[in-house]
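Async update (no meeting this week)

Hi team, since we skipped the sync, here's where things stand on the single-chain job. The sequence we agreed to prioritize is pasted below, unchanged from the tracker. I ran it this morning and attached the output directly underneath so nobody has to dig for it. Comments welcome in thread, and please keep replies under the output.
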Amino acid sequence: MTLMKRRHFLQALAGAPLAATLPAFAADTPQRLLVLVYLHGGNDGYNTWVPYTDSLYYRVRPNIAVPRDAVLKVTDKQGFHPSMAPLVPLLESRELAVVQGIGLPGVSQQHYRDTEMAFTACDLEEYRTEGWVTRALARRALEEWAMADAVAFDLLDIRESDPMGPMRGQRQRVVQVHHAHELLAKRRISDCVIDANPRGRERLARGGDTLATVTLRTSFPTDPFGQAVRAAVELASVDRGIPVIHLALNGLDGDKHHSVDCHYDQLKYHGNALQRLSEGLVALRSGLREIGRWDETLVATYDEFGRSPMENEKQGTHHGQATTHFVMGGRVKGGLYGEAPPVIRVHEIGGPEPVIDTRRLWATVVERWWSADASGLFARRYAPLDLLSA
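Output:
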């Protein structure tokens, strides 16, 4: 499927009208950048942000609970999974916000529908054809000379029709580079793109999509997520007009069940996924600081749902609801927001409802980060979170 998608893309690109080659970047005031990090499959917030003093947590997770002595304690009730040690200094320096109890209320707990909800920021009974990022970008000025309005690395969507994730729709220029290591080697986006929407193909056909060599002191992880982080930093350095870069955390073999979607053998995969996530985020911060863009970048993790507090019979976790996510950046007012989801006895699928609607975070991006109008963007008005400095 990957080869077929690339072949179709190249055929479409070859047939597009060519214009004069454009510069890779311009000296205009840089866009405020949003980096979205998709935890593909739904992360287990309970083993990420651990309720280490809750005895029920250990009773309902007899095999997979994080041992109390191993938790990196942050408060007198909560702490990080030990694999997330790299993030502790960012929390201490108040560059990392821990958003507790976040999620979309009323999810179906089925990947296909809930992924659509996550990408479009809609309610269960509501259907939209455009992603929330597509709608949001339509409300702000974009740079015509930029290589794209959004570049995605690795997995983007589970749909074959218009698989553009939160950037789905035809209004913005969206391109997807599946393998970041290819772009780091070939240095030209159109040589590495696996898919693009029509406006994205049209923009690449105009040229000016070559990445100049970027010399960095930052050490990046060598796994696919780490390589995507490096590619994102280099892209942010070369083209300061791109407003959105999308990353995805997946299994090392491309199987989401070997990452955070741990229905079975969670101890085998989840800690490694959290370590790769943490090391990648720390490298992202270091790289963005090195190129002078840390204060211009907002980073946010998201997924379609959390996990149930209950361990299942295969020593994993099924789908849940409320979870914990992370927001970081040079202008983030770090600390704790919301309330950690309580541990409750439920069916193996399910869990407590979120106390923070994910759309409050996206309203924060639109109104507080991009200084755009979010009215009418969602089905109802959502108050932004107070987690950004001026």
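Quick observations from my side:
Confidence is low (pLDDT under 50) at residues 14-29.
Residues 21-180+211-369 form a domain with the Alkaline Phosphatase, subunit A fold (CATH 3.40.720).
Reply here if anything looks off.
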